[in-house]
Amino acid sequence: RRNMNSKPEKCYNPRDHTIPFTDKEDEFDCKARMSCGHVVTPMSLTKYCKYLLRKGESTFVCGQFGCNVEWPYVEVRKMALLTPEEMEYFETTMAVNAFKTHFDSKTCPGCKYSVTRKVESNLSVRCQMCTATKGRTYEFCWQCLREWKGPQPRTDRCDNEGCCNDALKTLRDCPYVNFEKVKGVTECPSIRACPTCGILVEHTGKQCKNITCRQCKVEFCFVCLKITTECRKAPKPDYYGPCSTGIAPRQTSIPVWQRN
Questions:
Q1: pLDDT confidence of 176, banded at 50, 70, 90?
Q2: The CATH number of 1-102 is which of 1.10.10, 3.30.40, 3.10.450, 3.40.50?
Q3: Secondary structure of the chain in the HEC alphabet?
Q4: What percent of the chain shows pLDDT beyond 70?
Q5: Spans of all domains in the chain
Q6: Between the ranges 68-77, 162-171, 226-235, where is the mean pLDDT highest?
Q7: Model confidence at 49: pLDDT above 90
Q8: Residues 86-119 pLDDT 10s
Q9: Which of 32, 42, 46, 130 has its CA 20 to 30 A from that of 7?
Q10: Burial of residue 236 (number of CB atoms within 10 Å: 0-12, 13-18, 19+)
Q11: Are strands 188-189 and 176-177 parallel, antiparallel or unpaired?
Q12: Spatial contact of 160 and 152, defined as CB atoms under 8 Å apart
């Protein structure tokens, strides 16, 4: 099948009995159900999963509102009808993203290789490869990804113009949200840093106050920023009730993930 620009579009073979199709019988509009129950086409699934990879994700989670089911790669590969070229791109990008996530890695602006830092509180990171190649100590800023300027160690910024912590800026400037179903919760920051791993998470205020982090998979209370098990130790715990400690203020630091 081709679109108006004569580019081939992927579509399911309606005779493939291994694919859980919806009830629609139009062979030119075949749709199938993922393991979570939501409907996709091979083109829509491919585009959505590529979007997740560009965001730095290494796993695929359903994007439908309120659905946090993770799709196995083997399911995505089959249901998206990935071509050999797409499979190579998916698998390579998944591996790179997973490495960056689990080993706190970033790309050195000098040699373009992945570098991990030993001291997570110091923004100045030395690249051993660039140091050997250039014949001098080469360090770059973990925050703005430019060659380091200024004294060190530093935890806030280097002396490069425009260097700032975008995550902290987002936490400082994000709008407030009112929880529709949680009693007494108004003007809660709409974006929080996960108290376990530090990744930014947004809440629309339309569901309960607890949310599961897509990175570390830990469930926490968006209102008081305690792990859900701790939040529910309060008298008369309620997913839709106020927290005993009230609404946590805007965060002014990003938690560092202490991996075992």
A1: very high
A2: 3.30.40
A3: CECCCCCECCCCCCCCCCCCECCCCCCCCCCEECCCCCEECHHHHHHHHHHHHHCCCCCEECCCCCCCCEECHHHHHHHCCCCHHHHHHHHHHHHHHHHHHHCCEEECCCCCCEEECCCCCCCEEECHHHHHHHCCCCEEECCCCCECCCCCCCCCCCCCCCCCCHHHHHHHHCCEECCCCCCCCCCEECEEECCCCCCEEECCCCCCCEEECCCCCCEEECCCCCEHHHHCCCCCCCCCCCCCCCCCCCCCCCCCCCCC
A4: 91
A5: 1-102, 104-163, 165-260
A6: 68-77
A7: yes
A8: 999 999 999 888 877 766 678 899 998 888 887 7
A9: 32
A10: exposed
A11: antiparallel
A12: no
C-alpha separations of 236 from 118, 179, 226, 232, 243 in Å: 44, 19, 16, 8, 10
- Contact predicate 237/179, CB 8 Å: no
> From the CA atom positions of the chain, what is the Rg in Å?
23
- Tell me the pairing of strands 219-221 and 210-212: antiparallel
CA distances from 251 to 22, 173, 246 (A): 45, 11, 14
Provide the token pair at 147. 């060659």
Q: Are 171 and 251 within 8 A, CB to CB?
A: yes
Cα(79)–Cα(70) distance, integer angstroms? 14
> In degrees, to the nearest 5, what angle opens at C-alpha 104 toward C-alphas 100 and 105?
55
Count Cα atoms within 13 angstroms, Cβ side, for 73.
16
Measured in residues, the chain has a length of 260
Can you read off the two tokens belonging to residue 243? 């927290």
- How far apart are alpha carbons 116 and 126 in whole angstroms? 9
